[in-house]
User: What shape does this take?
Amino acid sequence: MSLHSELDRLRVVLVSPRNPLNIGAAARAMSNFGFLHLRVVNPYELAFREARSAVGATPLLARAEEFKTLGEAVADCTLVVGTTAVGLRQLQHPVRRLEQAAPLIRKRLAASPVALLFGSEKRGLSNEDLSHCDWLLRIPTREEHRSMNLGQAVGICLYELARNAQAVPKPQKHTAATAAADLERLTALLLDALRSSGYLKASPSGPQKRRSAAPTDEKIRRLVHRLHLSATDAELTIGIFRQIFWKLGSPKSPLP
Assistant: This one.
């Protein structure tokens, strides 16, 4: 397996970026280190493809994929890693320093796609964004000044991934990991089952429903990710839930 193939499996995902220059700088860093798949979720400025900061990376920026939701952006990935400055936030995930995280990411890249998430310049990744992550990484900045410029953060993370990429271990023979799309389907089915059984009470309609439902959805999604199900086990579990819904004659339509 070639080094290019391993690097080609990383998806750099920018979630709600606000400054086109930062998107261009991120694209330039990706091109520098050989990572070619940029995904952008709900960019604040739609004209980001014209960013002058993408020196030498204009083709990469032109090929960047746009998504309306983070779930869609990471659907084909078997590992989703978020970046965070930590700060005063109460996080629900394991947090690893960049130098500890890089070997784990490289190991997964040897076999399947990985998403590396970066949040908006203003607020970083939201709690809902983090619920899609398997774990988090942080760049070891000094405590007095934790946050970094988006483009610089992308560059530092990609340098750490690329600098020892020749040492990527060969994929071991093990059960295939589960794509994020399947984990999302399992999350939706589990939420339907909890609501149908009365474990979760029905929420009010309208905006209030969305606000009250969000924390529960995030908790269940994090739970599903913590199970670390193989692709086979995830498919089996989804099938079990579908059979239960069918047998009970549930009016809800199981997801395809």
In short: Residues 5 and 255 are 33 Å apart (CA to CA). The chain has a mean pLDDT of 84.
